[in-house]
Write a structure and sequence with these properties.
Elements: E1 2-6, E2 10-14, E3 18-21, E4 27-35, E5 41-48, E6 55-56, E7 61-64, E8 69-76, E9 86-96, E10 103-112, E11 115-117, E12 121-125, E13 129-132, E14 137-146, E15 152-159, E16 166-168, E17 172-175, E18 180-188, E19 198-208, E20 215-224, E21 230-235, E22 238-240, E23 244-251, E24 257-264, E25 270-273, E26 277-282, E27 287-296, E28 302-303, E29 306-316, E30 321-330, E31 334-335, H1 338-364, H2 465-487
Parallel strand pairs: 3-10, 13-20, 22-30, 28-31
Antiparallel strand pairs: 1-2, 2-4, 4-8, 5-7, 5-9, 6-8, 9-10, 11-12, 12-14, 14-18, 15-17, 15-19, 16-18, 19-20, 21-23, 23-27, 24-26, 24-29, 25-27, 29-30
Helix pairs in contact: 1-2
């Protein structure tokens, strides 16, 4: 116990010369005051070396009778853990108010630290546990002491957590013997699940360059808060009915999480397989997926494709929810192009049927050629087709008709007997293209049809629309006219 007195009139005693306490803690220090004078007096108690807001005393002025000894309690309370660590030279002074020359002092060393590492390299930390949340940072203040006998340079490093998380206010700290320096380390966590939630022990190392084997280590704990975060995606967003789709969920937090997946449609028009509710448990930083199928409960009979909207809901156990929108596309049982195709096919069949009917009617109603009369003793074959008329008579042929063969008088001819036809084969001296002679007694209206007044045969390879329409309009008229001529 140290005792300091001036003129042996007053004395003050403190129990210990070294005090150590952690920031935020409170320490009660007993003091023994002694008035050795022969008179009563008032004495003032003053504390120096630390901030005044760290100290509290029952009363700053104490009355002591002559020869009285009294114990007084001094309370020291450093600031909370975010305060600074360090060593402080504490001086407590007791002074008489009547005679200021009568005074006494007591000194001690106050060390404020949660951890003290003794040795050549002194290391003080105000705290050993540091809480931090992902995406945030925490400051780690510490004090370095050079307790050696020569000047030295100290460097800091961290083990137990990624070095990329740590930044120091100074890469190296030069210190003279007995000198101290405060250095701050900053731990910055990424905003992801890289650091799992919970307590992570780590060490702060201070190494000496003058004595490479000298290293001071401080054991600390980094407490990482829980992070609940995730991302999700629906692939594809437009789904064919009955085709598989999937919901991908990424756990971006730092703890294992349970996710509930729910599929629902606004009008309850879709069926989902498997069940509309699914659960996933995903470790931190990993990805999982849930596959499902959706199809409408009823499909339209006819029409175009239809889209049914739906929502995939992903909810974390911590309460966060994300909604993904998609749609299911389904086609009708009978596509919309079937009806036009059927109508076109029916029209094509009808056109073909009408075409065949017209052609068949024309072939069945071909004009009958009257049988040619033969002269006695000579047989004439009936021509199957009248000879073709030349479009332009040859210039060397005479324009007058050839002489008519001798016939019987008209009175002796039967009324219904047709005029005699010219021989099927023209004479050798006539060209083959010369038309047969027309009978004089037959009026022009009753002449047999020839190649000129017969309808032209359609060209091979199909009937265009215009010829087909013309045939459909005039075919009945031709049939009626031919039947009328037969009646006559």
């Amino acid at each position: 116990m140290e005792n300091h007195s001036f003129e042996n009139q007053v004395a003050i005693q403190i129990q210990s010369a070294d005090l150590t306490m952690a920031p935020g803690s409170s320490e009660t220090v007993p003091l023994l005051l002694h008035n050795r004078s022969s008179t009563d007096g008032f004495f003032e108690l003053v504390v120096r070396g630390i901030p005044s807001n760290w100290v509290s005393v029952p009363s700053p002025v104490v009355r002591l009778a002559a020869g009285e000894q009294r114990e007084v309690f001094l309370t020291i309370q450093p600031p909370p853990p975010q305060g600074r660590a360090g060593r402080h030279q504490l001086v407590i002074r007791l002074t008489s108010q009547d005679t200021p020359q009568q005074a006494a002092e007591a000194t001690c060393t106050l060390t404020v630290a949660a951890l003290e590492v003794p040795g050549r390299i002194g290391l003080l930390l105000a705290a050993t546990e540091f809480p931090v949340a992902p995406g945030e940072s925490v400051a780690v203040p510490l004090v370095l002491f050079n307790q050696g006998l020569e000047r030295d340079i100290f460097s800091l490093s961290v083990e137990g957590i990624p070095s990329s998380w740590v930044m120091a206010s100074s890469a190296s700290t030069p210190l003279s013997p007995g000198q101290q320096q405060e250095v701050t380390l900053t731990i910055q966590l990424p905003h992801s699940g890289e650091g799992s939630a919970g307590r992570h022990p780590f060490q702060i190392l201070a190494a000496s360059q003058a004595a490479p084997g000298q290293v001071a280590a401080a054991d600390c704990i980094l407490t990482i808060a829980t992070l609940s975060q995730f991302g999700c995606e629906l692939r594809p967003q437009r789904i064919e009915a009955g085709e598989p789709a999937r919901v991908t969920v990424e756990n971006q937090g730092n703890i294992q999480q349970a996710f509930t997946l729910t599929w629902q449609s606004p009008d309850e028009g879709l069926d989902f397989e498997p069940a509309p509710t699914h659960e996933l448990r995903i470790p931190p930083g990993e990805v999982a997926m849930a596959e499902f199928q959706a199809k409408p409960r009823s499909r339209p009979l006819f029409g175009r494709e239809r889209a049914w909207p739906f929502t995939a809901r992903v909810q974390a156990a911590e309460g966060e929810t994300q909604n993904l929108s998609g749609e299911v596309v389904s086609k009708a049982l009978i596509p919309s192009w079937v009806l036009p195709a059927v109508v076109v096919a029916i029209l094509a069949i009808a056109c073909i049927a009408i075409l065949f009917a017209v052609l068949g009617s024309r072939e069945g109603a071909s004009p009958e050629v009257p049988a040619a009369t033969a002269t006695p003793g000579e047989e004439q074959p009936a021509p199957t087709q009248p000879p073709e008329q030349p479009t332009e008579p040859p210039p060397e042929q005479p324009t007058e008709p050839p002489p008519e063969p001798p016939t019987e008088p008209p009175a002796e001819e039967p009324p219904t007997e047709p005029p005699p036809e010219p021989p099927a084969e023209p004479p050798a001296e006539e060209p083959p293209t010369e038309p047969p002679p027309e009978p004089p007694a037959e009026p022009p209206a009753e002449e047999p049809p020839t190649a000129e007044n017969l309808p032209a045969e359609p060209e091979e390879g199909g009937l265009p629309c215009a010829p087909l329409a013309t045939g459909l309009v005039f075919a009945p008229l031709l049939v009626i006219g031919k039947r009328g001529r037969r009646g006559k």
